[in-house]
Write a structure and sequence with these properties.
Rossmann fold, single chain, alpha/beta, 2 domains, 15 strands, 14 helices, globular
Length: 381
């Protein structure tokens, strides 16, 4: 079959969905990626995989009626030329405009993968400020327009699927499936020895890996680090992620203030996170953001790291409380500090819960099994 995959960030295709695209090619399908030309390395990697690349004017951020309608026209034109049998769209804007374009281009089979609901959808019971409430209504309206055209919709956690059903964004008879994204490559992210407190080096080391957004729990992580550093000066607290411009991003001056204060060490972004995971004792994501399924936590679990995560959609899927880590309420730095303190006071938990993380990753999140389920759902097996 001819397959078109539409995404808003080309490195996501190679970093996250490379094994899925490779599996499509191994089964003899012809695959074309439509994405912004934002990474020569990703473009070259796709071509080496035998995946054709079509650059499109797709911006991940913002909603601009004129540019979005131009994007719809551009995608529709390309899909009419490519005549795919199947379109799979990933990320919010590609799902909305890609699904509509596929409908206009009369593509027989249209699928959408919902990546998580982000800032547009608050947590359960959360009161959205006026600006975000307006954004929520707009995004819901666009989903309501686009998703009924899809033969099937893929979600990364059951909470998001339940919410879409409750809001009427999915038709009652519409096929859907919950999958952990593209899973995690259990070979590439192999188990690493636990990092225990050392009388010389110090520790343990708590690492949060995420985009540098306020809603990703970074202020809470910094405050919890401040509380613990006063009592346990040997413990380390590290932040790894790329800066996010625009509203919602952690201001650069705030990052500098954290680094100057000394409670948190802000690391430079890296292309390969595995060395930092090997240096970490425990991985933390105290997000109040509507995650799909945080890939950073899957990679940490695969490398035998215990997890502390917020008890929110997406995050809670990675933790069996008391087995491979702990869940904490969002926006609660005191609760986060108490959870981290348990590993400081009882370092044996680091190795015990890390081993459980690896077992959970093997049982539920291996990329080969996950991609086989996705291909079966898309009718491409």
């Amino acid at each position: 079959m001819r397959i078109a995959v539409i995404v808003g960030y080309s490195p996501a295709l190679t970093n996250f969905h490379g094994p899925l695209l490779a599996a499509m090619r191994e089964r003899g399908h012809e695959v074309t990626a439509l994405a912004p030309d934002d990474s020569p390395a990703a473009r070259d990697a796709l071509r080496r995989m035998g995946v054709a690349f079509v650059p499109v004017s797709l911006s991940r951020a913002g909603l601009n009626p004129l540019s979005d309608l131009a994007l719809l026209r551009e995608l529709t034109g390309w899909l009419r030329r490519l005549t795919p049998d199947v379109v799979l769209s990933l990320m919010v804007k590609p799902v909305i405009w890609g699904s509509l374009a596929a409908r206009l281009a009369r593509v027989p089979a249209i699928y959408a993968l919902i990546p998580g609901l982000g800032r547009a959808f608050g947590l359960e019971g959360e009161h959205l400020p006026p600006g975000r409430k307006l954004l929520n209504l707009l995004v819901r309206g666009l989903y309501r327009l686009a998703l009924p055209r899809c033969r099937g919709v893929l979600f990364l956690n059951p909470d998001d699927r339940d919410l879409f059903r409750a809001l009427g964004l999915l038709r009652p008879e519409q096929a859907s499936i919950v999958v952990p994204g593209a899973g995690v490559d259990l070979t590439r992210f192999s188990p690493a020895d636990p990092v225990l407190p050392d009388p010389v080096e110090g520790g343990p080391v708590f690492l949060t890996m995420t985009r540098l957004l306020l809603d990703k729990g970074l202020p809470e992580f910094a405050e919890a680090a401040r509380l613990l550093k006063a009592r346990y000066p040997a413990a380390e607290f590290r932040v790894l992620g790329a800066p996010e411009p625009g509203p919602g991003g952690v201001p650069a001056e705030r990052l500098r203030a954290w680094a100057k204060e000394g409670a948190v060490r802000v690391l430079e972004p890296v292309a390969d996170v595995r060395p930092e995971l090997r240096r970490a004792s425990v991985c933390v994501l105290a997000s109040a953001y509507r995650e799909g399924l945080p890939r950073s936590l899957l990679e940490a679990m695969s490398m035998s790291r215990p997890i502390i995560a917020s008890d929110t959609p997406g995050c809670r899927e990675t933790v069996i409380p008391g087995r491979n880590g702990f869940l904490v309420p969002p926006r609660d730095p005191q609760a986060l500090a108490r959870a981290m303190e348990r590993f400081i006071l009882d370092p044996e938990l680091i190795a015990e819960m890390g081993a459980e993380s690896r077992l959970l990753a093997e049982r539920r999140f291996g990329s080969e099994e996950v991609n086989a389920r996705i291909l079966d759902f898309l009718g491409l097996a």
